[in-house]
């Protein structure tokens, strides 16, 4: 089961199914074009500090 959570300043941002799917597809597309990323992806964690 997919679980997609977006947090900004430690506050969860609600995502409807369309936004969850868009975010997932953007990240997967990026990873598929990146080197040294395994073909079998089970989980992804992105953390950005500004």
Explain this structure.
The chain is an alpha+beta fold. The protein is 34% helix and 12% strand. The protein has one helix and two strands. It has one helix at residues 17-33, and strands spanning 6-8, 11-13. The chain has a two-stranded antiparallel ribbon. The longest helix has 17 residues, at 17-33.
Task: Describe the structure concisely for a colleague.
It is built from one helix and two strands; from the N terminus they run E-E-H. The protein is of the alpha+beta class.
Count of helix runs: 1
* pLDDT < 50 stretches: none
- Assembly category: single chain
Radius of gyration, taken over Cα atoms and rounded to an integer in Å: 12 Å
- SS-based class: alpha+beta
Mean of pLDDT = 95
Q: How does the overall form come out from the CA principal axes?
A: globular
Into which percentage range does the β-strand content fall?
A: 5-15%
Helicity, as a percent range: 25-40%
Largest sheet: 2 strands, antiparallel
Span between termini: 30 Å
Strand segment tally: 2
User: From N to C, what is the helix and strand string?
Assistant: EEH
> Could you give the order of strands across the largest sheet?
1-2
């Amino acid at each position: 089961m997919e679980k997609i959570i977006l947090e900004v300043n430690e506050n969860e941002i609600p995502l409807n199914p369309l936004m969850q799917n868009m975010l997932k597809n953007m990240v997967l597309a990026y990873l598929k074009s990146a080197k040294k990323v395994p073909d079998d992806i089970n989980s992804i964690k992105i953390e950005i500090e500004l």
